[in-house]
Design a protein that fits this description.
Layout lengths: L1 H20 L9 H5 L6 H11 L9 H10 L5 H13 L5 H13 L4 H13 L16 H8 L7
Helix pairs in contact: 3-4, 5-6, 5-7
Length: 155
Amino acid sequence: MRAILLETLYEWSKIPYQKWFKNEKPWDISMKQLLAYPKETLGFYLGAFLLQHDFSPQPKLENHDVFHVLTQTGITVPEEIAMQYYLLGNGKKSIYLFMVIFIGTILYPDKFNLFRSAFRKGKSAYSFHQLDFRKLLHTPLTTIRTTFLIATSCK
């Protein structure tokens, strides 16, 4: 029930968030273009992540999927919340992030250890949340993870 509540809140808030709070330009990139990148690159891994989960690139929300790829975070509701904790630890601050963390922590107190672990991993990494990932799509995924000390698996 709590997962359904959070997923419903996400669906209601996604479009207004894209429209009024995301100032970035959409990447205007297709799944086919992403999968055409060399197999070791962020672009290819992003395309594979989207394909694996039957997603498509969401305009102005592309970075969110990149964060999943970089941190190897799953897509369950607790994992989504954990990823926001990871990003908070990494220095990201937004109204949306704080709302997810606040509501998620209340609804998932049993996942506190997961959230704390994700926050610590984010804090241990060099700041990467603000990067222009569109310019890094050609970069090997391992190079990005190694350069920024990105620990994986918020599970």
